[in-house]
Write a structure and sequence with these properties.
466 residues; 16 helices; two-stranded antiparallel ribbon; Amino acid/polyamine transporter I; 1% strand; mainly alpha; 65% helix; globular
Length: 466
């Protein structure tokens, strides 16, 4: 049985997945930008500045961006050389074997599934507030979960189903919707920067590091630049969804690395600009609000700011949701093809060339979670899952360089093994700065996944009969 746990997959570059190859490098970059620029830009910047880093939140974003960047180079090499729609799951399967691949897949399901449900809840809140601006109200029983005194969070439930139908229609149609929504939210950010940059008061940047680099408190909370970096890392969550599009990219060996690196670089620049301008316009102590960008614009006298920001947030969260749902279905699709979950779900609709059954399953489950459960702090577990998958991808680059030195690598990590080692150290450090309760939830989830593997997946793996 021990040997079964570490059986590895061969690299299969030219295997026909049945999915439609239609995404360009531009589409892939916008896929990453669509997922990575969401709640982080409109919410996390203010919270991190007010309670963790002060004006040095810029440094927090730089540190988080560096950690994501090191992992991004690792993803780019493995996406080009290993490929497949399974992202970190597929790379781990080739480098470390089936058991570790399953654990990473289980973590990715948490990352994408819980992330999507949490974002749907956030989108619902902004949607309801925007309707209220136009004097349209929805009864509270249709906007709250049963535990909050309602019947269902209908907007959260409905938006998941709307995007599920978009995904079923085809990947190119989904990409077109994503590109349009990305253009809207980037336009919103551009307007904010154009207005606010002329109102920067450098006195607001003093003191620059009010919380220092890191402080651990007796109640389990952390503050400081490093703790802030662990929080704002959520802003980079999802850029790795680009790698789940390998089976639908026109030229995955060339376009995936371009999409990953462009998306990550662009998002890092945007976060640095917005956080720097935001703390320059409003003192960091006043930014612990639900919509700091709208708050900053209203302080400058722009009364229409809430409508502008609401438009950007609604469009922004739509793209995050769309990409998360897309990434989740493609990871599960890869697992189904490998036999780790029932083969029923890897059937592709011949007309639309999408895994329709799997998309419907994901839409059904996530819409129920989003509509009937307030997720609260469970969403924080998304960060640790993302960081864990990044660490494994960085390890995978080094292992495959040793085990398969002659594997074709259209994109190669510069200065190997320095970049993946830095990725392991930086992502590992950010994991260490997360609260203990986040670790507890994470370990419980992994434990459940291990039970599922030994109960079902190990016995149905296609490698067992190979």
């Amino acid at each position: 049985m021990f040997a079964q746990l570490f059986r590895t997959k061969a690299v299969e570059h030219h295997k026909d997945s049945g999915l439609k190859r239609c995404l360009s490098a531009f589409d892939l970059a916008l896929l990453g930008i669509g997922c990575a620029i969401g709640t982080g830009i409109f919410v996390l910047t203010g919270i991190a500045a007010a309670t963790y880093s002060g004006p040095a939140v810029v440094i927090s974003f730089v540190l988080a961006g560096l950690a994501a960047g090191f992992a991004g180079f690792a993803y780019a090499e493995l996406a080009a050389s290993v490929g497949g729609s399974g992202s970190a799951y597929g790379y781990t399967y080739v480098a470390f074997g089936e058991f570790f691949a399953w654990v990473i897949a289980w973590i990715l399901l948490l990352e994408y599934g819980v992330g999507a449900a949490a974002v749907a809840n956030g989108w619902s809140g902004y949607f309801i507030n925007t309707l209220a601006n136009f004097h349209i109200t929805i009864p509270e029983i249709w906007t709250k979960a049963p535990s909050q005194g309602g019947i269902i969070n209908l907007p959260a439930f409905g938006i998941i189903w709307l995007l599920t139908l978009v995904l079923i229609s085809g990947v190119k149609q989904s990409s077109t919707v994503n590109n349009l929504m990305v253009a809207i939210k980037l336009g919103t950010i551009a307007i904010f920067l154009a207005i606010a940059i002329g109102h920067i008061n450098t006195d607001n940047w003093q003191p620059f590091t009010p919380f220092g680099w890191f402080s651990a408190h007796s109640d389990g909370s952390n503050t400081g630049i490093l703790a802030g970096a662990s929080l704002v890392f959520f802003a980079y969550f999802g850029f790795d969804a680009v790698s789940t599009a390998a089976d639908e990219a026109r030229n995955p060996q060339r376009d995936l690395p371009i999409g990953l690196i462009v998306a990550l670089s662009f998002c890092t620049l945007i976060y640095i600009l917005v956080s720097g301008v935001l703390t320059g316009v409003v003192h960091y102590t006043d930014l612990n609000v639900s919509s700091p960008v709208a708050y900053a614009l209203s302080r400058l006298g722009y009364s229409w700011s809430s409508t502008l920001v609401a438009t950007g947030v609604i469009a922004g969260l739509l793209t995050v949701l769309l990409v998360l749902l897309y990434g989740l279905t493609r990871i599960l699709y890869a697992m189904s093809r490998d036999g780790l979950i029932p083969a029923f779900f890897s059937k592709v609709n011949p007309e639309r060339q999408t895994p329709t059954r799997l998309i419907l399953l994901c839409g059904s489950v996530i819409s129920v979670v989003a509509g009937f459960f307030p997720l609260g702090t469970l969403a924080e577990t998304v960060n640790i899952g993302t960081l864990a998958s990044f660490v494994m991808v960085c390890f995978g680059v080094m292992v495959l360089r040793i085990r398969q030195p002659n594997l074709p690598r259209p994109f190669k990590n510069p200065w190997n093994p320095l970049i993946p080692v830095l990725g392991i150290l930086s992502c590992g450090a950010l994991m260490a700065f997360l609260p203990a309760e986040t670790w507890h939830r994470f370990l419980i989830w992994v434990g459940i996944g291990v039970v599922v593997y030994f109960a079902y997946s190990m016995h149905h793996s296609k490698l067992k009969s190979a």
